[in-house]
TrEMBL record:
This is Recombinase family protein. InterPro entries: Resolv_N (IPR006119), Resolvase-like_N_sf (IPR036162), SSR_resolvase (IPR050639). It comes from [Ruminococcus] lactaris. Residues 5-149 form the Resolvase/invertase-type recombinase catalytic domain. It comes from the Bacteria. It holds the Pfam family Resolvase.
């Protein structure tokens, strides 16, 4: 297979601008410098200029090298979709350098394709699961902290000294809620919720 068919893709997120490791890995695999496509942005979606240019070049005679699977993206539903486009629609091969099992050139039979698809699905599942677990652990941590009495968000502002008098005047119909709230430096909604709270507790 001639050099012309070998491509590399690398993505550098805005946080870690160090592309050297990816570049070295791709070069070691024999990817010519002018066939390395690089995007510098987050992996949220696939609106990437270089990635789109690369996709247009791929065909059944192409091999695409990437250092790790997350270079294709971190949205795993989308990652599976991109894998399908590259391998099924473009009929190109993908080699994931950090994951030797993800090399679609290995066996061009049904078993080879099946192994690649299973490994990719497994990685996707593990990653999705990890994301769900992180969210769950965060929720549990917040619930546990709340149970210990840790307060989240801004602390409520202390009730001004004139609140009780304004509340009395408002309930007596001497002033409107807008006037009472303004005198207490509150918006009417806040004044009302504090009034209800005060009435319940008294």
């Amino acid at each position: 297979m001639g050099d012309i068919n070998i491509y590399g893709y690398m993505r550098v997120s805005s946080k870690e601008q160090n592309e050297d490791r990816q570049k070295i890995a791709l070069t070691e695999m024999g990817v010519p410098g002018n066939h390395i496509y690089m995007d510098k942005q987050s992996g949220k979606d696939f609106e990437r200029t270089q990635y789109k240019r690369l996709l247009r070049k791929l065909n059944e005679n192409s091999v695409l090298y990437i250092k790790s699977i997350d270079r294709l993206g971190r949205n795993y539903g989308e990652l599976n979709e991109q894998w399908r486009i590259i391998t099924k629609e473009k009929k190109a091969d993908i080699v994931v350098i950090d994951m030797p099992l993800l090399d679609t050139r290995r066996e061009k039979n049904l078993l080879g394709t099946f192994i690649s698809d299973v490994v990719l699905a497994l990685l996707s599942y593990v990653a999705e699961n990890e994301r769900t677990n992180i969210k769950q652990r965060q929720a549990e941590g917040i619930a546990a902290a709340k149970a210990r009495g840790v307060k989240f968000g801004r602390p409520p502002l202390p009730i001004p000294e004139n609140f009780y008098q304004m509340h009395k005047d408002w309930r007596a119909g001497k002033i409107t809620i807008e006037e009472a709230a303004k005198a207490c430096n509150m918006c009417p909604k806040t004044f009302y919720s504090k009034a209800v709270k005060y009435e319940k507790s008294s």
